[in-house]
Specification:
By secondary structure, the protein is an all-alpha fold. The protein has 4 helices and no strands.
Length: 97
């Protein structure tokens, strides 16, 4: 990929995300003076290339924001989160099977 600007088409999406995680992402985007969408695109593009999207100073900022917003999740929680109110639904499904 070259360093040239690229013309793209963006779409509006409705994505559900953990509340405290969103707060950290919004604060980080604000700190870097960018939109939340731009931040997420950068994170995903780096992840797709197997790279970390953040320098050491940003990682420190993220740790501080996680502490401020009481975000105690890390990568080990990925794909294991259950929404409030869904716990009972899952219990009921297990009882019927």
């Amino acid at each position: 990929m070259s360093n040239k600007s690229r013309v793209i088409e963006r779409v509006q999406t409705g994505v559900r995300i953990e509340k405290r995680l969103l707060k950290v992402l919004k604060a980080l985007a604000e700190y870097h003076d960018m939109t939340l969408g731009d931040l997420l695109e950068g994170i995903v593009l780096h992840a797709f290339d197997g790279k970390c999207a953040f320098q050491a100073s940003s990682l420190t900022r993220i740790r501080n924001l996680k502490q401020f917003y009481d975000l105690d999740l890390d990568a080990s929680a990925s794909h294991r989160l259950i929404e409030v109110g869904k716990t009972q639904t899952l219990r009921n499904k297990k009882r019927r099977t």
